[in-house]
Design goal:
Elements (H helix, E strand, L loop, with lengths): L1 H16 L5 E3 L5 H29 L1 H6 L4 H19 L4 E3 L2 H27 L2
Antiparallel strand pairs: 1-2
Length: about 130
């Protein structure tokens, strides 16, 4: 159940990131199609973060130390951009059209996901 909730919260965060110019979700699609696309992109983003990000951190750990972790913003942007490209290759109508769109989109996804997870954790802890 926890993975399903996490995917849904990430899908909401990706939806919020579509407010950034350059991050596009097919506007002509029906609401169920958009929801399916967002869930697919959230799953894809989770896979990219689970597989690629640890490798980048391992091989680029010196850059993380030298830049005091600021390279993490660039890495997150590149991973979000990669997710947009992979979504296009898989036929999902989701597009990230450049580095800066990916940069700000990744920040919005991270912050929105953090807030949503915080709210979810507090709501489930009260039970």
């Amino acid at each position: 159940m926890g993975i399903l909730v996490h995917v849904l919260l990430t899908a909401v965060a990706v939806w919020v990131a579509t407010l950034v110019p350059g991050i596009d979700l097919d506007q002509g699609a029906s609401a169920p199609a958009k929801i399916g696309t967002l869930i697919g992109v959230a799953l894809l983003f989770g896979l990219v973060n689970a597989v690629v990000k640890p490798l980048v951190k391992f091989f680029g750990c010196l850059f993380y130390v030298v830049t005091l972790g600021l390279i993490g913003l660039v890495v997150n942007a590149l991973l979000f951009w990669l997710t947009g490209w992979l979504a296009g290759e898989l036929g999902l109508p989701f597009e990230v059209s450049g580095f800066w769109a990916a940069f700000f989109g990744a920040i919005i996804v991270a912050l929105t996901g953090w807030v949503l997870n915080l709210v979810y954790d507090r709501a489930t802890d009260d039970r």
